[in-house]
Every structure is written in C-alpha cells, then in structure tokens.
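Problem 12. The chain below contains 326 residues. Write out its predicted structure in token notation.
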Amino acid sequence: MTSSITDSAVKAAIAAISSESATTEEKIQMLIEMAQGFQKKPKTSQDLRNAVGLFYRAYQMCGEDYLLLKARAKVGMAGSLQMISDADSQLLQQAKTDYEEALPILQQFATAEEVAETQMNLGLVLQSLVPYNLARITDSIHAYHEALRVFTSEDYPQEYAILYNNIAIAYLSMPMASEREYLRQALAVQSFETALQHINLIEHPKEYAMLQNNLGNALQYLVSSHPVDNNLRAILAYNEALKVRNLQNTPLEYANTISNKANVLFNLPDNPEKPELGNQKNLLQAEEYYQEAWRIFTEHKQLERAEIVAKALQDLAAEIEALALN
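Solution.
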C-alpha cells in the first residue's frame, strides 16, 4: 500500500527535527507550520490526527523556554481535535482544556487578535459540549463576547458576523421554561439583525447569506401573536440569502435555503389579508422548492437532509389532497 502525501510529509517533518543545522526554536516553528499546513486542507480525519501529533511534538520540545510557541502548539492541537468530523466528547473536552491552558499565555505574549480567535474557537467547543452536559451555553456566549472586544464590526466584519451568528444559535439552543421561550428566540433574532447592520451583500456575500438564512429560520419559529408577519419577514430574509446562494456556485446552501423557504410557504396564506382563502398557491410553490432541494441533496449524497425533505413532501401531498377534498 502506498503511503499518503500526509504520511510522507509527517515523516519529512520529523526528519527535519533530527537535523543539527536548525535551532530548537526553528525546529518547533517548522513542526507548527507543517502541522498548520495539514490542518488547513485535511482530506480525512487521519490527516487531522497527524496534525495533532506534529503539534504535540512541537509542544513537547518547547518545555518552559518557548512559552508562546507552546501555547500556539496547544491551540493547534485543539483546533485539529475540534475539526475531526467524528470527534466524540472526549476529544472535544481535550480541545477545551488545550484552549483554556493556552489562553493565559496568549494573553501575556500574543496579539489581541490571536487571543480573540482562540476565545472564538473556545466558544465553539463549549457550544459543542453542551449537548453532552459537559459545558454551559452561557460560558460559550461569554467566550464569544470576549472575542467581540477585538473583532469589531469596523475592523473585522467577517469575524463579527460569524460571532453574532454563533451567539444567536447559542441563544436558540438554551433550555428555558416555556413562558420564557419567546425571550431566547427574540434574543437570537436581535443577534442576527445586529450583525446584518454591519454586513452587506456586496462586501461580505457569504456571511450576509448565512445570516439572512438563519434569521429567516429564527423568524419562522418565533413564538408570537403575529405569526403571519414573522413568516413574511422570514420570506424576505430567505430571498436576500438567495441573492447569493445559487444552484451553480453553492448548491447545498441553496438547497438548504429553498427548503427553509418551503417550510414557511407551507404555513403562509396566499393572501395574508384574507387568510380564509387558503394557501393552495403557496403549497404548490413549496412543493417545487422541496422537489428541487430533494434532488440536490440526493445528488450530493446528503441522504439525511434528503430524507427530511422527502418527509416534508409527503406531508405537503397530504395537505394538498385534503384541500382538494374540501
């Protein structure tokens, strides 16, 4: 069996360490840079595990003499563990520990941006650990807000948008008593809208589309005495996202947004002023969107998503049939 490019590169990196022509600091830097290269474009989870190994070798070489490099190696290990697609709670807990151990050193020696990026990633790990009951969502939100001290809308609009998107999603996942359900949903909507005040379609299309899509999702499930108004606002948000997301360039994101839009149309009267007239037109439009989304998800082997859309199509067919009988 031939060894992969990653395996060969790992061996090359380790061979470089045995070279006597480089100083200890240079060897550590080489390991970190090599590991970062693997981390940026991993093809398999093994690539990321190899990156963890290189970061760990760099960490071991640092001792107490190269504290900043030691912290960066820790952050590298955490980032790689975090990216492993089948990461379990144990790997995520190790990533959390690595970030938390690196932060005090980074705060002492690194740039504010490097510290903020680490806080941002710590927030993501904490958020991932919440379903395992191994972290609190409030701690995740706190980490995001710490990162926002540096990643302002003026200087770092993309990071700012992603942070507010993450904060909104964190709010939506917070367990609250039913009477406070509206509060967390309203906070999420507010977070999306805050980010959108500073992100525009021209300069940051990807982030703009992400925020508009997620705002639409939050609006359509918002507990409110004005569900039709919220659904109309959701449609507008999805339409904004679809100015960026399209079948040619971003097929999966496009399919995601049109299926979300179909969900709204399913429950939206054709004429909001006269809801008693029904929503047959919107149901037929929803059917078109669902069918297109199902084809895209199936074609791209996103079988779980395709199954969800197929179930929605079944429910839609039953609704259309029921209308025909009335």
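Discussion. Residues 159 and 256 are 23 Å apart (CA to CA). Students who got a different answer should revisit the alignment rule from Section 12.3.
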